[in-house]
Design brief:
By secondary structure, the chain is of the alpha+beta class. The protein has two domains: 1-44; 61-164, Immunoglobulin-like. It has one helix and nine strands. It has one helix at 2-43; strands spanning 61-66, 69-70, 78-81, 87-95, 102-107, 110-116, 120-127, 134-143, 152-164. The strands form two sheets. A five-stranded mixed β-sheet has the order 3-9-8-5-6, with no helix packed on it. It has a four-stranded antiparallel β-sheet with strand order 2-1-4-7, with no helix packed on it. It is elongated, with a radius of gyration of 25 Å. It starts with a helix and ends with a strand. Residues 1-22 form the signal peptide. This is Lipoprotein. It comes from Clostridium fermenticellae. Keywords: Signal.
Length: 165
């Protein structure tokens, strides 16, 4: 009886030892991925494709909404800023977008955010050059297979105007 008990305890100890080794390996893998994340982010910069034209392509519609109006009928809504303003917001509204694809939002050709849009409304932050006086362009782009290196399947654009108070 004592031999059986010793064998059971020894077996359990070995099982715990082996599972702990696997757990440590998984913990190390996760740690390595987290430590390398900033490097991966630096290398995966999302850029607006240069060959996009003013043309509207793909399904759905979108417009910008500010307190002064919308871009629904080709209008250019205005936002007013003070000299010391750090962040402003505009509303982006989409209708009939293909929700199976990620939508990448660019302001003046620079990536702002990505969201899964269909019939959606969201607020995006504007900072730096995006709130300087002048006319600014907002592009929404969807890529084939959700890969930014693949072809563009949806492209929509609108403008907003920033004016000083």
């Amino acid at each position: 009886m004592m031999k059986k008990m010793s064998a059971i305890i020894l077996t359990m100890f070995m099982m715990l030892s082996l599972s702990a080794c696997g757990g440590q390996k998984q913990a190390n893998d996760v740690k390595n991925k987290v430590e390398n994340a900033p490097n991966q982010t630096k290398n995966d910069v999302i850029k607006l494709p240069k060959d996009l034209k003013e043309a509207d392509m793909g399904t759905g519609t979108f417009y910008i909404k500010t307190s002064s109006g919308t871009s629904e009928k080709g209008e250019v809504p205005e936002i007013y800023t003070k000299k010391d303003t750090q962040v402003m917001h505009i509303n982006v509204n989409t209708k009939n977008f293909n929700g199976e694809h990620m939508s990448y939002i660019f302001v003046d050709g620079i990536f702002n955010t990505k969201k899964q849009l269909s019939d959606s409304s969201l607020t995006i932050d504007l900072k730096g050059n995006n709130i300087k006086a002048g006319k600014h362009r907002v592009d929404i782009v969807q890529f084939n297979n959700n890969k930014t290196s693949d072809k563009v399947i949806t492209h929509k654009l609108a403008y907003y105007q920033v004016k000083s108070e």
